[in-house]
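Example record used in the benchmark description.
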Amino acid sequence: MYNLSEVNHKYGENVHILSNPLSSTLLTKFSSKDVIQPELNHLLHKMYFILLEAVTSHSFPRAHSEVVTRMEEKLESEVLTFDQRVVLVDLARAGIYPAHMCFEILNYILKPEGLRQDHFYVNRKVDENDQVIGVDVSGSKIGGDVDEAIVLLPDPMGATGGSLSFAIDHYKKSVEGQAKKYIAMHLIITPEYIKRMSQDHPEVEIYALRLDRGMSSEKALKAIPGEFPEEERGLSGIQYIIPGAGGVGEILNNSFV
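Model output (structure tokens):
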């Protein structure tokens, strides 16, 4: 039996904020303004391995396995179901590297013929006051159906939830097949993100290494996360995460636009 180590909160059973000193250490370093490439990618790789371990161990189906070891003895164990279909969704641009990294690791664990990586080009749309008013979609490359697949969406920052909600909605309405489940994988999420996803797609499982709610009231900050949702905020006036990590997509790609 795998026991997930997670932060106590009141956001519901589908939200998993990991309680992991190693990932917290790595994410603290990742969030520092002094960290640039190539160190940023190395830290991201380690953190997404931790996230993927939690996701596969807690949310993937398992099967009984019997193999003969090199000692010519029978080994019985519980393992991940090798033929589980998985679709990795790359939400360009911050999600490009995390999605490909998870895709690469899963190819060593599950049957490669059951894995696929899709590409979705989506960006937040803002008005003249830098307020998010929707999403801009410039295209996608989706390689088939999602029937009985676990759809993974590894995107570092869960800020407003607009882009991720749009992408999931597209898969539900425009891609053939009924997915087994949708799982979002983030480094950092906000109360606003959790609220949006809970409203739009309450069945989606959310995994994150950290919850940022630095704009919340003192009462909310001293309480269990989610206890006073009306007083919780993690976004600045122009809807960037506080304290956050700042410009992850820009630094990941060395493209500051």
